[in-house]
Amino acid sequence: MGPERDNKGLRELVTMTLTPASEFAQTSIAAPGIIGVDWEERVDYARLRDYRLARARQALEASDLGALLVFESSNIRYLTATHIGTWGYNKTERWALLTRTGEPWIWDFGSAAKNHRLYSPWLKPEQSNGGNNGLQGAIAPTSGLPQGTAEQIASILKEEGVAGMPIGVDVIEMPMLRELEAAGITVNDGQQVMLNARQIKNKDEILLLSQAASMVDGVYQDISEALKPGVRENDIVALATRRLLEMGSEQVEAINSIAGERCSPHPHVFSDRLIRPGDQAYFDIIHAFNGYRTCYYRTFAVGRATNAHRDAYKKARELIDSAIAMVKPGVTTDQIAALWPTAQEFGFSSEMEAFGLQFGHGLGLGLHERPVISRLNSLENPVEIEPGMVFALETYWPANDGHSAARIEEELVVTETGAELLTLFPAEELFVTNPY
Fold it and tell me: Of 28, 296, 352, 384, which is the most buried if we count CB atoms within 10 A?
């Protein structure tokens, strides 16, 4: 099934629900559970694999490249539907190749290649091979490993009729790049082609993203019950990590856990600070379910909230609500970024320094996909919003007490008529935990 036909299912999957502003956040997108069953249609993994490969072929055909050679983990998974655990993420120790005329090739870590031949029948057995480029230089390039890889790739390009065309590469080590060039291969940027492919999600990808978000919904309930004086920031990280893994998370990439005087400016890392009465605290939960990621902030007040806390939260909520209201097909990302304040308006010297605070970014197999929305890049380089995009919008506002701050993030699916939420833990007003 091709990507155009499959995306017609979005209309059935996602129907925009218009509710009065006074109602709580709702969605019509299913979060169907983590296992497959015979009595209900959930994620169709064969359809998912076919869709992703068709999208990649379509993007490759639209480029001037003869092939894509990818080393980045999410790109490898998108092309080959292979995964060997999070320890292997982005070490450039495994790679995949797709030409205009052939089927995907995978070179994987040792015995993983044999495992794919046994359990991944969508790959041609002879095109799943062990590979080694030198373990990021731990085996010196003088071993000949990068040269051998380049010669293999050059041979495949010739056999599949694209030897005279440039190839696109996402990320690469210098010895590997030099050996490809020595083999007569012109290397261009392939990351843009892969991002073109990945920016529109099908029904199955949206269901996986929804399931991932629903797991975080539950973790925030646990956090709201645990968040009280005497608990440390890293205790919340441990709680969230454990719960996500119990729920079936594939990877807990990061938990931002920030409280009290650490809220402003945002440090982007947790500590062992003890939570105190009256703290404002915010969290970001980044994990993956079957590869599909979340980025999901919520802000709390511990026991009680000050007027400064409430004012900051109200401002962050206004900023995100105005952005959500703007989201619909045909709108461009500069129109959303223009709704947000300049860096100087909330205490930063430049848009570069304030980057990531008033912000939007695509979600999928990667944490930061298209579109990326901010005043840093979107005003001069806008992207048109299309149905099937999934992205997060996040806002931040410092409190006037000089150290607290509010942070909110919502994940959205773009429908034919607007946007539908994936993130449902209550965020209409500042949530006070364990109130006194």
Answer: 296
